[in-house]
User: Fold this.
Amino acid sequence: MARLSTILRLKRLNSLLGIYKRSPSCLQSIQTNYREYHHDHDRARENWWEISKNQRFLLLTAGAIGGTILTLSNDFGNASVEAAEKYDPDIEKHHKTVRTDLPTYRMEDVAAHNNEKTGIWVTYGIGVYDITEFVPKHPGSDKVMLGAGSAIDPFWHVFQQHNTPEVLTLLETFRIGNLNPEDQVSTRDMGDPWSGEPRRHPILKPAAQKPFNAEPPPSILIDSFITPNEFFYVRNHLPVPEIDEKTYELEIEIEGVKKVTKMTLKDLKKLPKHSVTAVVMCGGNRRSDMDNVKKVKGLYWGPSAVGNAVWTGVKLCDVLAKMGVKSDEEKHVHFEGLDTDPTSTYYAASIPLAKAMDPRGDVLLAYEMNGQPLSRDHGFPVRAIVPGTVGARNVKWLGKILISDKESDSHWQQKDYKGFSPSTDWDTVDFSKSPAIQHMPVTSAICYPSPGDKVKVEDGFITVKGYAWSGGGCRIVRVDLTCDGGETWHVAELEQEDLAKAPPGRAWSWTLWSAKIPVPKKAREVEIWSKAVDSNYNVQPESFKNTWNLRGVLSNAYSRVKVKLAK
Assistant:
């Protein structure tokens, strides 16, 4: 019965995928059928290698549409990986291994097979693969055809969802030969956009390697009001570009005006120099706390995807004013980075022009961080710093600025970094119905002690330390702590340094705080809670239950840390 159900479900998916090419409106049906097929994980594991190669391909394709592209649940992905590893645990080595039972081809032979008439060949590692049958069935066939007759290594190195045992096993079934050794060097050189990645401090804990995303231990953050460059969290979406400052140019364009202004780094440094002390916080900071309540899709960030630095550069409003740009509530400023994927799509985002043109908004084209030239991980040679705004809009490796009537149409502006109702799931989400995140909400995090620590009780008190911050230039006015479930609250001492002289609405820095709070006499362990209050009297919500969202952004409920007590 299970076998019959499997085949019927596969036939239904096959029909839907055919319709999808002509009409993407059947997307929800694909999702439903895909998820129903994989609802029973045990059945999925048992049947994976019983079905045919084409059927396995069909499932992976449906998974790509229903899971990868729309970022659905990865539960079956784990099940199929497990099955594939059971089938061939050494599959990742195959594309690096010469198959003596197959012929050897030159790269020119591969290049001659770049369309449906000649057949579609590609190389991956030292393997040559005929994917002619694969392409028509793949929903992203236009992207697949970009690699026709050449190496797909650059694409798969960036789109890491392909590097799974089940996909590699499937690819190996299409193998027809080996690549000539003389051509392998050029393929290898062009194949790994990550080969030029900068070195990072080992204290950074990676949430992902490719692209590199990492945060420092929380205890490091409270050691200094200004976060050292080497310990500042790293959030990359694509490979870090290698840029020569001697040839670097920043393009600035006004939509509808033919003239494009180009500025070198030297040109920027001739303009009045300004410094702003400001926090940059990832929209997914503290996502792990929300994920612990209910699973979300995104990098498993702790509380340290944030840092406070002194940024130096030129005010964007000065640059735009010289070009004759005037503030307009309806217009937007697009920032386009020089980091790109294999389809030449750049990372991009936008902010309201009114924010950029407001001298009190302190938006910078920054070229220094804490008195040093920007490092490659942090945007060398020039990045946007948009104080009070989510990190996703602080675009690094700035290559182009565009003044437009519309928001950026990039994926990161339109299909990510947005908040939704807790009842919204991947079957019902409509990204067009939610505005892109700009200002971040008020938040705090306990950085010391760490969860599970044994904390010394001194005269009935324990020491607690952390940070607090609110977006939009709001100042932190109070941080409250409790270790008895909210029966009693204790106010922390605030360290605000630059904020003491910051005018209202321009408090861009964070607040470090510390407190000595009493603990119950006979308690052996306690759970410490912190909540911050900003100058608009916005307060952190008590729990994540009613603020949960499917992307795990805006994660700002009470910070909670359980510790043991040593008396």
User: Anything to note?
Assistant: Confidence is low (pLDDT under 50) at residues 19-27, 34-56, 62-87. Residues 98 and 263 are 50 Å apart (CA to CA). The first strand starts at residue 104 and ends at 105. The two ends are 62 Å apart (CA to CA).
